[in-house]
Write a structure and sequence with these properties.
By secondary structure, the protein is mostly helical. The protein has one domain. It contains 2 helices and no strands. The protein has helices at 35-42, 59-67. The chain is globular. Bound molecules: zinc ion. Residues 12, 14, 24, 26, 33-34, 36-37, 68-69 line the site of zinc ion.
Length: 83
C-alpha cells in the first residue's frame, strides 16, 4: 500500500550526495526508502526527495547515510582489531 504513485519502487530512492549519482541499492521497505534510509527519513535526516537534509550536521551520520549500500573497497587481508 505504499506505492500509490505508480512509480517503479523496488529500489531505495535515497540519492547520495557523493557526486549526486549514487542510488542506494537496497530494496524498498517503505515510502520508497529501504529500512535504513526510511528510519533516517523519519528522523528528518533524509528529505522526501531522497537527499540528505542540509540540516543534518553530524558528519559521521552523513557519511553513514551516504555510504550505506556502497560496496567498500576490498577489505585488507588482516584483522584491523589485531595489530
Ligand atoms: Zn537506502
Amino acid at each position: 500500500m505504499t506505492s500509490e504513485n505508480g512509480a517503479p519502487a523496488d529500489r531505495c530512492r535515497f540519492l547520495s550526495s557523493l557526486g549526486g549519482v549514487h542510488h542506494c541499492p537496497d530494496p524498498v521497505y517503505r515510502e520508497g526508502f529501504c529500512h535504513f534510509h526510511f528510519e533516517a527519513f523519519l528522523r528528518e535526516e533524509v528529505l522526501a526527495n531522497g537527499q540528505l537534509s542540509e540540516r543534518l550536521t553530524d558528519q559521521h551520520r552523513r557519511r553513514a547515510l551516504n555510504y550505506h549500500g556502497i560496496p567498500l573497497e576490498p577489505a585488507p587481508n588482516h584483522d584491523p582489531f589485531h595489530r
